[in-house]
Amino acid sequence: MPNLPTISFSSTLANMSSPGTSSFIGEFPISVGAFQRNSLVATLAALGMILGAAYSLWLYNRTVSGNLKPDFLHKFSDPNGREVSIFLPFLVGGATVR
């Protein structure tokens, strides 16, 4: 299943507010403004964002390459064309900077 981990990874990057995603555009100015107002609160918020990103990567790793149970592998397949066409607007919308 090469396509599903790719879709999941791009969603994980958007969840982590990576540069180039739409959530980064909202989170960065908020962080800068909070640091100008109260540096202690902004530092704690930055620590929370770092821990959230680390958890997202850990969760992605466990989901994609976790413990495999060979008995259940025959039940899963890669997304077909219809499912990829449903995911595509979310991928483009999440990675688009407005």
UniProtKB/TrEMBL annotation:
Signal peptide stretch: none
Membrane-spanning ranges: 39-60
PANTHER family: NADH-UBIQUINONE OXIDOREDUCTASE CHAIN 4 (PTHR43507:SF1)
EC number(s) per entry: 7.1.1.2
Record key words, sorted: Membrane, Transmembrane, Transmembrane helix, Ubiquinone
Gene Ontology BP annotations: ATP synthesis coupled electron transport; electron transport coupled proton transport
Any one Gene Ontology molecular-function term assigned to this protein's record: NADH dehydrogenase activity
UniProt-recorded name of the protein: NADH-ubiquinone oxidoreductase chain 4
Naturally occurring in which organism (per UniProt): Iris pallida (Sweet iris)
